[in-house]
Amino acid sequence: MTYCVGIKLNAGLVFLSDSRTNAGVDHISTFRKMIVYEKAGDRTMVLLSAGNLSISQSVREILQIEELEERGRDGPPITIWNARSMFDAARVLGSAVRHVYDRDGEALKAAGVDFNVSFILGGQVKGEGMRLFLVYSAGNFIEATPETPYFQIGEAKYGKPVLDRVLTPDTPLDEAAKCALVSMDSTMKSNLSVGLPLDLVVYEANRLQTDKVICIDADNPYFRMIRDGWGRKLREVFDSLEDPVWNDDQSAHPLKMPAGRHGALRKISTRDEKLI
Amino acid sequence: MTYCVGIKLNAGLVFLSDSRTNAGVDHISTFRKMIVYEKAGDRTMVLLSAGNLSISQSVREILQIEELEERGRDGPPITIWNARSMFDAARVLGSAVRHVYDRDGEALKAAGVDFNVSFILGGQVKGEGMRLFLVYSAGNFIEATPETPYFQIGEAKYGKPVLDRVLTPDTPLDEAAKCALVSMDSTMKSNLSVGLPLDLVVYEANRLQTDKVICIDADNPYFRMIRDGWGRKLREVFDSLEDPVWNDDQSAHPLKMPAGRHGALRKISTRDEKLI
Question: Residue B120 pairs with which residues in a beta bridge?
Fold first, then answer.
């Protein structure tokens, strides 16, 4: 499994990925799922991948070494290195996904393997603002907006609530990085197939190069603080909420049977007598 | 969708269910998923159901009105009303699931519908301790143990972390009820197809009848306190964790590039030059 998250803020972009892959619980390996494409001063792109590793590796290889068929109307082939916009770069990525599908799709289907892959692609090309895309296995894609400033791929559910509670376009970069790490911590706690080390990139708007690039392993002091602190404090919050008080009018928040139609549970006291 | 949780503690049992069903997001209805079977002083059982509603309703109907084929060696048919143990009651339930499969399975398969159903059955029969079972769509089942004192069915992921952090066999009943409600709140926040009203039953060990039975709607003071308080305090905890400090040796918890082999991210600076 995999967990990756990409976040687009006014202040910049944040990318975080785990590095565990598994083919069954008895076949677990470490593969990095993040790759940075950078021509300093001209473009910076970060690619995160999830799904079938043979597919995502093929797509990444094609992005690097092959001329793609996606062409401008008259000019040379468009690649991620000469794309004029992130939108064009997302099209190049989608085209690479379709290329692999054309090559491998039928054989995978014959073997009963889904063509399962997804990507987060974000970054900035000189001359336009930052953009963040989610690319599906059909090569189609969607773009993040202020209402939904992040994308997840892989095991998304455990880590989603904290993203929803914290992230807005105005969130500062370091706070968003913290949020992504808490989200990753929740995911790793609940799904053994998501694991260390993590790759984290924090990109400041309009820099057109990445300085804050880090690999986080089990010894990282900050991530250890997150892991210990979040769990302990969550428990303190839980304990600070009052326990329910049943049908006590003295309580400020009684757990009281409401009046009205919703009050009756279906309770069968004998086989023939129903209290509905 | 559905979210139900059943918890077995030394002090008793806790059951919580939502009441939303959907066939697509444009077809949402309210159906209660909890049913209590009780012969006071002799047996109390609580049944929670998830999956295809036509299947779970059929199973519940069979449990009520039909004689089941599951027979004791010589005696009369075993039903949930004369089962000598919760284990036998779980077998009766499994048998009812298989009965519906025999009747509907083929037609459902022809229509491309999975035979998707699952149940949590817990309670106590006079003469033995409390027991809690998870019954699958094949009619087979597993029992909760001290190491795993709870079962979930339906949309389980969002609400699982808090159960894992809080529940042990020694957890008091009211604290476990609070924990189940927090778990439900997290699930409802992230999955629109899980919704109010909720049914909550708290059963005290060896009572052989249920007093604490409640339906919780949007006006319930305690659940409103949980919803407001948990979200607000989670945010406070998040804010109380320090933001990352990059490569600063003065920080107690720097987010620092570790030495060693994990330090290098795959970064491609031009098409031909790889920094690995």
Answer: B48, B134
